[in-house]
Design brief:
Blueprint: E1 2-5, E2 16-20, E3 25-30, E4 54-56, H1 62-65, H2 68-71, E5 78-81, H3 85-102, H4 110-118, E6 120-122, E7 128-132, E8 135-141, E9 149-155, E10 158-162, E11 185-189, H5 200-216, E12 221-224, H6 230-240, E13 247-249, H7 252-262, H8 270-279, E14 281-282, H9 286-291, E15 298-301, H10 311-318, E16 325-328, H11 337-344, E17 346-349, E18 352-355, E19 360-363, H12 372-382, E20 386-390, H13 394-408, E21 411-413, E22 420-422
Parallel strand pairs: 3-4, 4-5, 5-6, 10-11, 11-20, 12-15, 12-16, 13-14, 13-15, 16-19, 20-21
Antiparallel strand pairs: 1-2, 1-22, 2-3, 7-8, 8-9, 9-10, 17-18
Helix pairs in contact: 6-8, 12-13
This protein binds zinc ion (ZN) (2 copies).
Length: 427
């Protein structure tokens, strides 16, 4: 078997791994790298030439699925994914297609996207499927977002394990990913390969106390949150801690929450989540936004990095309110408006720099990825002969590679873009 990296090689974004055996050719993920130099373009993985049997999709985030429709301009592979991944993927790809068109960027057309949807094959967790003669695979819950999968691939008596994005400890929404069985080859993400997350319980306590302090001082809080997973988690956390102020949910997180409500078995504590969704005030009309700050309140809304969305409508007024706060609930990529706000307390509105130094701005690290400790624990549990470290910045990947070579003593690489590995040379 040959494994080639068409993206996410010493970078986060555009995950794309090509697997080739004598009888099969398939992809693990085919995503976009969002952002780009001007924060407006989306970078694709390297192209796939010729015939393609299948794509196995780990989860619905665009950095894993966003480029799949492009494949259908020249091929017609089956696309395997968890049933809960499909509606989220459909929504996020439609949204990205819409944005690309608005920006007059070259993209696929609607009928190409429909061709992709016709080729989707939903695969539940924990069942083996055989997309081709010499390959079978099984999904297990990755604990990252709704429907997220780790993939165990069997070919010619050998196991290859692809983590995708995963979290091995519990969050409010999902149980942590279980340890893999033994695998000869491990392809692992290293988003936080050399960083530790804060203790989750302490993080939640600090977060809730900070929000209560703002409310008690008569201010309001805006919580920018990613639509998939983070919005639902933050609302559930506020509900279970009985925040005594109106809490509002706005942006694409609402539509994604509707999807979460359809998949009760994939949510850790569905009763709690359902209660939270009944309790929170859904912003369904533009006019409602004008009334939100009439009293101390909390707003959970997109975009998580202030790159657009309803949050842009709340910020100008928030700035005028006494004792108010803006708390980020996810990592802010360097160069994004969110990162600039966090570091410099300012934001551009219609080419004018607006100062936000009168409000409290903080970042709470609610990550849906495992950290250094989690990565190491996972690798040890897998007893691999070859470890390929990807989906991480260069330094994070190299730190994991060094650790594997020293502590596990097997082959480990942080692949470069286009790099190929013939598995039989290592196992
Ligand atoms: Zn992800
Ligand atoms: Zn990712």
């Amino acid at each position: 078997m040959e494994i080639q990296f068409l993206g996410a090689a010493r970078e986060v974004g555009r995950s794309a791994i090509l697997l080739q055996t004598k009888q099969s050719k398939l992809l693990l993920d085919y995503g976009l790298k969002l952002g780009g130099e001007d924060n407006r373009t989306a970078l694709r993985p390297l192209p796939v030439h010729g015939y393609l049997d299948a794509v196995i999709l780990s989860h619905a985030h665009l950095d894993h699925c966003g480029a799949i429709p492009h494949l259908f301009q020249s091929a017609e592979p089956s696309v395997y994914m968890n049933p809960a991944t499909l509606p989220i993927t459909e929504m996020l790809i439609r949204d990205s297609m819409h944005i690309a068109r608005q920006r007059k960027q070259e993209t696929y057309n609607n009928s190409t996207f429909k061709r992709m949807l016709r080729n989707v094959k939903p695969v539940p967790y924990n069942q083996f499927h055989s997309p081709t003669q010499d390959i079978s695979f099984k999904f297990s819950d990755a604990g990252h977002i709704l429907g997220s999968c780790m993939t165990q691939i069997k070919t010619n008596g050998m196991n290859v394990f692809y983590t995708g994005d995963y979290k091995n400890t519990d969050t409010h929404m999902h149980k942590g990913a279980k340890k893999p069985g033994e695998s000869e080859v491990l392809i692992i993400e290293a988003t936080y390969g050399a960083r530790e997350h804060p203790d989750r319980k302490k993080l939640e306590k600090d977060f809730i106390e900070s929000i209560r302090a703002v409310i008690e001082a008569g201010g309001s809080v805006v919580l920018p949150a990613f639509a998939v997973g983070r919005t639902q988690e933050i609302v559930t956390l506020l509900y279970s801690n009985k925040i005594h102020a109106p809490v509002y949910m706005d942006g694409m997180g609402r539509a994604i929450s509707e999807i979460y409500l359809d998949y009760s078995k994939n949510v850790k504590d569905y009763d709690e989540f359902y209660g939270a969704m009944k309790w929170v005030n859904w912003i369904t009309h533009h006019k409602q936004r004008e009334q939100v700050f009439n009293e101390p309140s909390v707003v959970v809304t997109t975009a998580g990095m202030l790159s657009g969305g309803p949050v842009m409508e709340y910020l100008p007024e928030l700035r005028t309110l006494r004792n108010s706060a803006l708390f980020f609930t996810g990592f802010q990529v360097p160069g994004t408006p969110g990162r600039i706000m966090l570091e410099e307390k300012k934001m551009e509105f219609d080419d004018v720099n607006v100062n936000f130094s009168n409000i409290d701005i903080k970042y709470f690290d609610f990550s849906a990825h495992c950290d250094e400790h989690g990565v190491k624990k996972f690798i040890s549990g897998c007893n691999p002969k070859l470890v390929l470290v990807q989906h991480g910045e260069e330094e994070q990947c190299e730190d994991v590679v060094d650790w594997v070579e020293q502590e596990i003593g097997c082959f480990a690489f942080a692949p470069k873009l286009r790099e190929k590995f013939k598995v039989e040379d290592f196992v």
